[in-house]
Design goal:
The structure holds two protein chains of two kinds. By secondary structure, chain A is an alpha+beta fold. Helices cover about 25% and strands about 25% of the residues of chain A. The longest helix of chain A is centred in the last third of the chain and has 28 residues, at about 560-590. Chain B has helices at about 10-20, 30-35, 70-80, 85-90, 95-100, 105-110, 115-125, 215-225, 230, 235-250, 260-285, and strands spanning about 1-5, 25, 45, 55-60, 65, 125-130, 135-140, 145, 150, 160-165, 170-175, 185-195, 200-205. Classes of the chains: A alpha+beta, B alpha+beta. The interface of A and B includes residues 467 and 728 of A. The structure holds flavin-adenine dinucleotide. Chain A: This is Xanthine dehydrogenase, molybdenum binding subunit apoprotein.
Chain lengths: ~800, ~290
């Protein structure tokens, strides 16, 4: 077992002030600007001679385009360009994993909101009016809007009687793509194929389509360059994967397409796919003018992928004593019209779909399907959020069936270091699932709900809307645990690049860290500074703008940037340090064994200050650029799903306490408690922020967040009707952060951002279930579900 | 686009008469949303925030005369005692920012079935005072709503004020939303007991094409309270239950993204029963306002 250390929340690290190395609550360099409203987001980009680009989108979920007439739009005064797929000079389709999505619609549109044409004009309103005058003649088709129908699996795939392969062959529904409607089918076959058990519980579950709901809409500015290339400033998550796809679409080499990160107002996976990137570049190259594109709120709901809705059937078998014997699971993820990251989401949902429990016999089928619903792809938690609702509901159902306490059942079956996962991987660092649960249990409970005259409406279900003074209110408590892979899996060459420079400016040592890792609000810029401070012993660390002038950092997703880009920055700092120390040794003229960098000086414990950095460096600059990789993973076997697929796991657990107005079906989450193992809290305050934010997003999915899609059409593309939690919905939290170092990771750290997003919602659902006694198999839970109306 | 900023009420009325398609703007919390979503492209905006009379409230002929441009935040802080039902409704509206800007006049002119002022105004039996260069008229609020987002306002008229008699008995307001703040009503209910007139006022929101009263429920309850007004005796649970059913029966809701028709009907019956229970408990204690 690795050495445990524990950092209680609110550790007195604030003393380090604005600066601070790893482990300190270093302040964000962008924090004050953001709070003051002075931070420039992508939507604030501006050039005096710029044009505005807008997108004409398909009103139909599925249709053939007979013809497009751009003439009337071009005739609008102020319009500079109207482009269609004919104007895409390079590859006309793109995609993160499979290139299947048209830059601009080709002959068929496959979802409502698919981009069809672009307009650039001198005013956004002019561009919008012109776009409305593009005449598109559609032959409207019947959309395929259900994943199982799309795959020809009208009934649950009963593995015994009808192997999945057979039903797939018999699929009848229209093919959205030439290769069929199946994006990926992941199978896990482990242990006894025909297991039996004393106690069996079977459940079917459904998860609605959640949106990332980031506040900063998709936006960017493309500037044509003198060399015939283009410079794109854009709010995004992975500059280099954007660059690759943009180059392909424009038919340009990489040195002609340069990207710089614009201010990002949240991402959560929704900026992994391209949105306006290629469009703005096309318009800029076509007009020879800078072109800005910035979606409004409604368009944003059509401008990025969402979380896959899921339908799932689980069967858990256990002994009378409560030991899990087997799990069979069939999971359908609706990927919508294009693949996006569906294959990887299927990989996660399948391999981690049973939760952090030891299951000897496993049979999982996880399918990702094409439909005519909005495309779904990456969102925080990435496949694990959906399955967590199912596996944790099953654990509660099993506990009820066994007459056992739900926490006891979980502890009894919990993974620990050395356990084997369903994909046959040994968990080779701490897996403190039992401790996470026990710590939650030991936390004090919030006070009982007030009644009568003591009632503060803000504490009641319904809040100041004054729906109850205690009538009908019942309390419930629920627990859930998450485990989630950190970084990219299944053999992906997951790396990051860091360039670190050390020099003396005006007598002061200054380090500069240059990476292409997108800061999307999570605080990586602070982490980069902290690592450089710790490794180079300097206080002043400049984070250079994020751009493609340095190598890829990989995506800001999968809870991976502190691990992978943090690892790269650490390695580059070490290389810089080595050169500086070696120069110092040369200057001293003899071997000093314990030389290190501290406080802008080269010091030795034995000899005190040896030299100042000014003495060592003079006017020289020491710079190192390094590519850093975490240990390799491998693809899983396509037939059995076995393999060393994941580099690291993150674990978190939640306890939710809710009050439900059982008569009106309104929910007040009273308290959320969370325990999480983060390996090492590089910035404890930022860790707490991630846990709070992830918890809120999980709570949102449990009780309110859903994109409602009917017949392939989005019914609520606005913050009027797509509801996210407010301060009166998100309760105070109790948080305990554990730090069990992972020996394989830099500083022993574990990715933090996603796990709490996964365990939060199922805990809320379990609590509502306990309060109401209802089975509740679908999230978000609506008042209708709780009142039977 | 023209942007007019009349400094007096007379100028405002003249501006509206001269450009009937002009869109008045008070707090802008409906107008600007429509503009931002591209649903409204006014050729002329008339900013009413400089007209002093609209920003004031006062007592006139025994009633509170609430200027159309008084924001919700002031209704809550200044009129909680005089207009308890409306103040309770105002507390449920939007966020602090919206309550600082949004006005009852704007809510009335938008005439959304989900507007939160309406059930409270209906229950209290308010009148809407509207004016044009042709003169001033008073419209009972129950006759003001003419269809989904349509009102009795003529195209040269502006809303000057609402007139509401101070409460002679308890008032309540209750609203369902699927989150605990900043939410458009899935269903709402306003109740006013009028012991002086031995009458009951009701208002239903978000459960019919327009805000509306529940006249049968009002009559039923007034009948049941006959005698109880004086004795301040206990209200039978069955009476509250029946009242809830009759309120629900007065609704004509639809299924939409915010909720099902069946849920709205159910929720109205619960809200009507609960608010009546609270209001009657307050009445028995002799507390006239209970806000
Ligand atoms: C985030 C948000 C949350 C909201 N939450 C709620 C809520 O919980 N409940 C609710 O009921 N509403 C809500 N609203 C809607 C809005 O705030 C209310 O309808 C508010 O009362 C509108 O008032 P206003 O002064 O801002 O109106 P404006 O937007 O200025 O005007 C609204 C309409 O009234 C007209 N108008 C304004 N004044 C006059 C006048 N004196 N004479 C004639 N016409 C006039 C305008 O031309 C326009 O048609 C919300 C809005 C937002 C943006």
């Amino acid at each position: 077992m690795s050495t445990p250390t524990r950092a209680p929340s609110g550790a007195p690290a604030h003393l380090t002030g604005a600066g601070g190395g790893i482990g300190a609550d270093a302040q964000r360099p962008d924090g004050v600007l953001k709070v003051r409203g002075e931070f420039a987001y992508g939507s604030d980009l501006w050039m005096d001679d710029m044009l505005w680009g807008v997108t004409l989108r398909s009103p139909h979920p599925y249709a053939r385009i007979r013809s497009i007439d751009v003439g009337p739009a071009l005739a609008v005064p102020g319009v500079h360009a109207v482009l269609t797929s004919d104007d895409v000079p390079g590859e006309k389709v793109y995609g993160l994993e499979l290139a299947d999505q048209p830059v601009l619609a080709l002959d068929v549109v496959r979802y409502q909101g698919e981009p069809v044409a672009l307009v650039a004009a001198d005013h956004p309103d002019t561009a919008r009016r012109a776009a409305a005058r593009v005449v598109v003649d559609y032959e409207v088709w019947e959309p395929v809007t259900d994943a199982r129908t799309a795959l020809g699996h009208p009934t649950w795939n009963q593995v015994h009687e009808t192997p999945a392969e057979v039903t797939e062959l018999s699929r009848e529904s229209a093919h959205l793509h030439p290769q069929g409607n199946l994006v990926r089918h992941l199978k896990i076959r482990r242990g006894d194929p025909e297991p039996t058990a004393d106690v069996v519980v079977i459940g079917e579950y459904e998860v609605g389509m959640q949106d990332q709901a980031f506040l900063g809409p998709e936006s960017g500015l493309a500037v044509p360059a003198e060399d015939g290339g283009v410079d794109l400033y854009v709010a995004t998550q992975w500059l280099h994967v954007d660059q690759r796809q943009i180059c392909a679409a424009l038919g340009m080499p990489e040195d002609k397409v340069r990207l710089t990160l614009a201010g990002v107002g949240g991402a959560f996976g929704g900026r992994e796919d391209l949105s306006m990137h290629v469009h703005a570049c096309l318009l800029a190259l076509h007009t020879g003018r800078p072109v800005k594109m910035s979606y409004n709120r409604e368009e944003s709901f059509f401008g990025h992928v969402h979380r896959h809705p899921a339908t799932m059937r689980y069967e858990h078998g256990a002994t009378r004593d409560g030991d899990l014997v087997y799990v069979r699971a069939t999971i359908y993820l609706d990927g919508g019209a294009y693949a996006s990251s569906t294959p990887a989401v299927v990989g996660n949902a399948g391999t981690m779909g049973l939760g952090p429990y030891v299951v000897p016999n496993v049979h999982v089928d996880c399918y990702g399907a094409y439909t005519n619903n909005p495309p779904c792809g990456a969102m925080r938690g990435f496949g694990s959020v959906q399955t967590a609702f199912a596996y944790e509901s099953q654990m509660d159902a099993l506990a009820a069936e066994l007459g056992m306490d739900p926490v006891e059942l979980r502890c009894r079956n919990a993974m620990e270091e050395g356990s084997v996962t369903p994909n046959g991987q040994v968990v080779d660092s701490a897996a403190p699932v039992v401790e996470l649960l026990r710590r939650l249990e030991a936390m004090p409970m919030p006070p009982a709900p007030a009644t009568g005259a003591d009632v503060d409406l803000r504490d009641m279900p319904g809040g100041v809307s004054n729906t109850t003074h205690g009538e009908g209110v019942r309390r419930g408590v629920g627990y859930a645990v998450a485990y989630k892979n950190v970084a990219f899996s299944e053999g992906f060459d997951d790396h990051s690049t860091a360039r670190v420079r050390l020099e003396v400016v005006g007598g002061e040592a200054v380090a500069t860290v240059h990476t292409a890792a997108a800061e999307v609000g999570q605080g990586l810029v602070t982490v980069e500074q902290q690592i450089a401070r710790t490794e180079l012993g300097v206080e002043r660390v400049v984070v250079a703008p994020k751009d493609t002038a340095v190598g890829s950092a990989g995506s800001t997703s999968a809870s991976r940037q502190t691990y992978v880009t943090g690892g790269a920055v650490k390695a580059a700092c070490e290389a810089v340090r080595e050169r500086v120390l070696s120069r110092a040794r040369d200057l001293v003229g003899r071997a000093v064994p314990d030389l290190r960098l501290d406080g802008g000086k080269v010091v030795s414990d034995g000899e005190g200050v040896a030299l100042t950095l000014a003495e060592v460096l003079a006017d020289d600059v020491v710079e190192e650029t390094l590519e850093w990789r975490h240990r390799r993973t491998e693809p899983i076997d396509p037939e059995t799903g076995q393999g060393f697929a994941h580099v690291q796991y993150a674990f978190s657990a939640h306890r939710a306490v809710v009050d439900v107005d059982t008569e009106l079906g309104l929910v007040k989450v009273v308290e959320m408690a969370c325990t999480q193992d983060v390996g090492k809290a590089i910035n404890p305050q930022a860790v707490i922020g991630q846990i709070q934010g992830g918890t809120a997003q999980g709570l949102g999915l449990a009780v309110m967040e859903e994109i409602l899609v009917r017949d392939g059409r989005v019914q609520n593309p606005s913050f009027t009707d797509y509801l996210i939690p407010t301060v009166l919905d998100m309760p105070p939290m109790r948080i305990e952060v554990l730090e069990y170092a992972d020996p394989h990771a830099p500083y022993g750290l574990r990715g933090v951002g996603e796990a709490p997003n996964i365990s939060s919602g199922p805990a809320v659902l379990a609590a509502i279930r306990q309060a109401t006694g209802l089975p509740l198999t679908r999230v978000p839970v609506r008042p209708e579900h709780l009142t039977g109306t | 686009m023209d942007f007019l900023q009349p400094a007096t009420w007379a100028e405002a009325l003249e501006a509206k008469a001269a450009a009937r398609e002009a869109v008045p703007i008070a707090g802008g919390t409906d107008v600007m949303v429509a503009v931002n979503f591209g649903r409204l492209r006014p050729t002329t905006l008339i900013d009413l925030t400089r007209v002093p009379e609209l920003q004031e409230w006062g007592l006139d002929d025994g009633a509170v005369r609430l200027g159309a441009g008084v924001p919700y935040a002031r209704v809550i802080t200044e009129l909680g005692g005089r207009l308890p039902g409306l103040a309770m409704a105002a507390r449920t509206i939007g966020s602090p920012q919206i309550r600082n800007r949004g006005t009852v006049g704007g809510n009335l002119a938008t005439a959304s079935p989900a507007g939160d002022a309406h059930p409270a105004l209906l229950a209290a039996g308010a009148e809407v005072e509207v004016a044009s260069v042709r003169g001033t008229r008073r419209i009972p609020v129950s006759e003001f709503y003419r269809g989904v987002k349509r009102s009795a306002l003529a195209d040269d008229e502006l809303i000057a004020a609402v007139r509401i008699r101070p409460p002679a008995g308890p008032q309540q307001y209750s609203k369902i939303g699927t989150r605990n703040a900043m939410v458009i009503a899935v269903a709402a209910f306003g109740l006013a007991l009028h012991p002086d007139r031995r009458a009951v006022g009701t208002g239903i929101g978000s459960a019919a094409p327009t805000p509306r009263r529940a006249p049968e429920a009002e009559e039923f309850l007034a009948g049941e309270l006959d005698g109880l007004w004086e004795s301040r005796g206990e209200l039978p649970a069955a009476t509250a239950g029946r009242f809830g059913e009759l309120v629900a029966a007065a609704a004509a809701p639809i299924d939409d993204v915010r909720g099902t028709a069946a849920y709205r009907v159910h929720a109205l019956s619960v809200m009507a029963r609960r608010t009546l229970t609270w209001a009657w408990a307050d009445y028995r204690k002799g507390d006239p306002t209970c806000a």
